[in-house]
Structure formats: structure tokens, C-alpha cells
# Entry
Amino acid sequence: MTKFGTKAIHGGLEERNSFGAVMTPIYQTSTYIQAKPGDHEGYEYSRSQNPTRFALERNLAAIENGRFGFAFSSGLAAIDAVLKLFNPGDEIIAANDLYGGTHRLYTKVFSKYGLKFHFVDMQNVEAIEEYVNENTKLIWIETPTNPMLNIIDIKGASDIAKKYNCLLGVDNTFASPYLQNPLDLGADIVMHSATKYLGGHSDLVMGALIVNDKKLAEDIYFIQYATGAVAGPQDSFLALRGIKTLHVRMKQHCENARTIADFLSNHPKIENLYYPGLPTHRNHEIAKKQMRDFGGMISFTLKGDKYEDAEKFLTSTHLFALAESLGGVESLVNHPASMTHASIPKEVRDENGIKDTLIRLSVGIEDVEDLIDDLKQALDNI
# Structure
């Protein structure tokens, strides 16, 4: 079987273009010439077909060990397409620790169209079964979760989904296909915010879905075609370029994160540290079973409960830029309660551990000694 690095660079890209260009060209066109009505070369209009996007979609399928890939205008557009597979009265069981935008899409948009959502702590997957009924159509998980870095047993969740004849969707953004392949563990749908590790350079916004089932792929394609949330050719080119170095970047993200987690675990100003690579992590053994390494994301809380301490830290870093998003080559620091998860009600945030002193790091691929020096001086400023 072809190994990951080779698939990242070559997967799905066997089709040659007219001029033999090594890199997939950017087909910056909205429409295509037809010899007569209906007589064309497989492309009519770029909402439905675009060669650059199609090349990316084949590549996405290859690196996730799937059959069908879809590139969307954003990660939320990809999740939006999944939810449009269902009808009023259908129920969805979702992890309680989710990206704030996903929670907002569920509760503020689709709940008013008759979909019902249950938010469940899935660190013990058996908890899912309590909420399953005849209307359950989808189980939706993130693993590792955002921002608490909880780990959910994908194979265990898949067994439950199959037992009750519903779909399992996995947001694989934090792990990336280099570290984890949910389809191999029984998932039906894999989702990525390709903005993050797949693109890898903080220069595009994109979402992706990958599936194996042909009928499911046809339904997703129809929704994408009918509603129009497609990735553009320029962003598709950038994502393809980013994926070519995914395996090299992820190795350095993981190595740096391990070193930084060791540093933070011994720091007197840190109260709780969340990183699945630590033996003390609640689901470390599951992470070892389903992941090839533990990723580049770390979250922690400061001692005490003063937001002012968190703010002081967040405004004191130099290499860790205070910004939304994650997964780029540069290191970022984020305050989930006021940034990525601000749309979640405070009582729900508090229940899920998203305190005002919680800080999330996206560890980049800079020299780790410099990153530790930056964290050290920021902690000293508190």
C-alpha cells in the first residue's frame, strides 16, 4: 500500500493536464465551451465541476483512505451540507465539547428547522446509547475535541452507530489525516476544516468531506451542487500545495507540542494541562490506539480564576500570535471563552470546562527552544 507521504504528494493526481505541468493548474474559469448543447469535455460550469477542485477532492479522498472527497467554501459549509441530509424530526447526537461555530450552527440555525440535537459527554462512548431512539440519524464527534482535547473512541462510536443504523461523522481537523483516519475505524463521514492543518499556512478558508459510500457521496454532491458552497480554484490550488507537506509539518508540530507539554506540566502557574500525549490524560490509551501521534494542540488553565491573568498572558507572548484559527506553520494562542467559543452560552462553557482562564495553543513548527522562552516570559508576566 502506498505510504502517506507519497499519497499526500501524488494521491489522486494521476490525471495529466494538457501541457504536462507538474503542479495542478488553477482553472480560474466560471464556464466551459460546449461543441453543441450537452457535448462537452466533462465540465459545464464551475459550481458543479472545476478541474482544480476535482484534483483536490481526489487527493483528499486518497489521504483519508476514502473513495469520494468534496471541497467546500468553509468547514461550516461542509457541516451544513451534512445536516441537509436530514429531515425535520430527525435527531443528532453530538459531543458536548465542540467547536463553537458547530454548536452555533446546530442550535441557532438548524434547530429551528426541526432537527433535534443532544449534546453528550462521549469520553465514555457508552453514554451515547442513552440518547439513541428511532429518530436518531447521526452521531457527530470531534476527536481530539476543541478546545478541551478530549479523546473519543471512534471505533466504539462506530459500533454504536452501526447497531442503531445511523451515520457516524467525525471532525478530524485537530488530528489531520496524517495522525488519524476515521473511515478506517468505521466512520461514515470525515470532515475537515481544511483552513487548518491541511492548508497549513493560514492563507485559505475551506472545508472538506470524505466518504466511502456511493449513495452518500451522490447525496452530498447534489447538496453541494444545489446550494453552491464550493471551494474556488485558487483556494483549491493552495490546499493541494499545503497537503504536499502535511506529513513533514505534522511531525514537527507533534515534536514541538510534546516538548512544550513537558515544560508546561512542571510550571507552577499552570493548574490543568490538556494534551492527549500525556499519560495522565483521561483517554491517553484510546489516543494511543487510534492516533499515530498526539498533534500540535495544547490547552491549559492558569491557577486561580482571574480573567485578568489570562489576558496578561495572552498579550505578553511574542512568537505566539493572539488570533483565531490553528494548524498553520506559525504558533498561535487563543482564548476560547471570548474567541472561538464565545457563541456558546457561558453556563454551557463552564459545564464543559471552558473557563475564563483556559488558554489554547496551536504549536507551530518554529524552533521549540524559542517557543518555550516565549511562553516562559509570558507566564512570568502574570
Summary: The longest helix spans residues 246-265. The chain has two domains: 4-243, 246-380.
